[in-house]
Amino acid sequence: MAEAAQNPEPVPTSTRVGAEAAGSINDTIQNYAAYQSEVSELVNVVRRRGQELAETGPAILGDVGSSIKPQADELIAAVQDFSEAPIPGAAIAQTFTYASVLLVGAFFGSFIGSYIVGPILSLFLLKFGAVLLALVVFPLIAFGVVRRLQAAGSPDQEIRGTLGGLTLIQSLLVGFSISGHYANQPLIFLTPVIISFVLPAALRAVGNNRANVLGAALGASVAVHLLLGAISGNISFSYLLLTLAYAGIAGAAIQVLIKDQAAASTMQVYAYEFGIAFGFLIAKLIVFGLFGMSAAAGNRTQQH
Predict the structure, then answer these.
(1) What share of the chain is helix, strand, coil (3-state, %, to 5)?
(2) Residue 295, in any domain of the structure
C-alpha cells in the first residue's frame, strides 16, 4: 500500500492530450470573449481617427511605397521556410480569433456595400475607382497606419479600432465593386475560426513540426468548407478557388508570424490580423471579378 502511494500510476497519454486540447479550446474561447469590449469601442475610435487619416493619407502612401519591395521579399522567404522553429500557438490563436471577428464585420459590410450603400456610391464613384481603392489604396494606408501608430506608442485597442474601421470601409468598397456579379462562395470568416481552434490542438499533439501543424490546421479549414459546400450544393469553381485562396493566405500569415516571433520582431499581432482580413477581401474581389456571373446571366443570386 505504501509503495502504491509513493509511486502513483502515470496518467495515460490520451488523457493528457485530451486535457491539453480542451485547454487550447478554452483559451480560444476566452480570446473571443476578450475581444467583445474592443469591438464595442470600434465606432468611437473610427470617429476620432477618421479626420486624421484623411489628412495624413497621402504622406502615409509615400512612406509605404519605398518599403514595399523589401517586405515582399521577406514574405516570400518566410512562406518558403519550413525549418524547425518554435511555433507560437497562443499568438497564432489570438491573431486568427480577432481576424475572424473582423471578417464577420466585413461579411456584413460587403453585403451593405452591394445592396444599400452601392447605389449611393455609384453617383460619385466609378467601380474602377472602388476596385483601385480596395486593392491598393486601403491596404497601403493600413500598413502605414500600423507603423505610425506603433511608433507613436498608441494603445493596441486604438490601433485595432482604427484598422477595423479601414477593414469595414474596404469591405463596403469590395461589396460595391462586385455588385451585379454573383458566384458561389465559402463563408469568409470561417477559415480563421477553424484555425484558431485546430492549430493549438495540433501543436500540442505533434509539437513544432511546422509542416504537420500547417497541414492539420489548413486541411481542417478546407475540409469543413468542402463539407458545407457539398451539403448546401454550392460547390463550384469559384467556391473551390476561394476556399484554397483563404487557406493559402492563412498559411502565409502563419509562416510570417512564426518567422517574426522567432526573430523577436516588435510587430504586434494586429498587423497580422488585418493582413489576413485585407487578404481575404482582396481574394474575394479578384475571384468575383474574374469568375463571377453578371446579374443578367445569373439564374440565382448569391449573398455578397
Answers:
(1) 75, 0, 20
(2) no
